[in-house]
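Incident log, structure service

09:12 report received: a user says their structure output differs between two submissions of the same chain.
09:20 pulled the input from the user's history:
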Amino acid sequence: MFREILSNKVGNTARLMLLLVLGTSLTACGFHLRGNIPLSEEIKNMYVIAPQGSFKDQLESILSRAGAQLAETKGGADVVLRVTDASSDRTVGTLDERGKANSYNLRFKVTYTLDDPEGEAIRKSTKLYENRRYDFNPEAVIESESEEAELLEDMEQDAALRIVRQLSAITDYQAK
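09:34 re-ran on a clean worker, output below:
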């Protein structure tokens, strides 16, 4: 049957119908492109409080792509997303035979809450962790530092996406 649909015998209309059915199936199963996560209407109008830096920028960008309208003030928002911690650290992963580090573990931690305008918790304090490991070559320090910076940026983006995914699951909140 599919061979007939794809052949010239049936024509372009059948091919178009097949593509529409496949596309509808993907959206019906909850599939979304990375970073395209819809938020419920009740929490779309939000004010973000987060430490200044690249994580806040990533988070606000992903929230905007998810349909959030970022308010300029707390008073103009239906909800307040408060990031109380967005920090990273690096620990030694493995040592070589001389006791020198040849890999490192990176950890990025985010703690956030979602509150209504009066400060009542909609989502209690939540901690997220992203971990990565990378090899360290003492002969190529600049390349290793560059790799670490790229991994940290990737971890920040993944943490921001996880926050937005978790926020998209909130369906029972009614804005006052």
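09:41 both user submissions now match this output. Likely a transient worker issue. Closing.
09:42 reviewer note: Confidence is low (pLDDT under 50) at residues 28-35. Residues 1-31 form one domain.
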